[in-house]
Amino acid sequence: MTRYRHIFVAVGALLFQVIPILFIRLAARMAYGESPWMPESWVCPVSLVGLALCALMGIALANGAVYGLLTRSRLRVATPFIVLCCIPALVSAMVYLRAVLVFAALV
Length: 107
Hints:
Number of helices: 4
Largest sheet: none
Number of strands: 0
Order of helices and strands: HHHH
Strand content: under 5%
Shape: elongated
């Protein structure tokens, strides 16, 4: 299994991009749900910090996956994984980071 770790990291980087969406839904539910237990004044800072951490972790995972694929596998194997897993993960992480920067400028 450790022999193919770089391939699992590439797929994991793509699957990790679901976590920021779930985090934003959870933060909204904690503040505005049926039984809110988080004050409304905490929603914006918690959302911004959590989304920024998720974006930075997604960028780190995608870049690490690209590096691992390029250094540990053949180009014939690395190219499809980079195109199908790493680039979409990197783009979505950059979108989350841009959202954090835009929301931070508005707040």
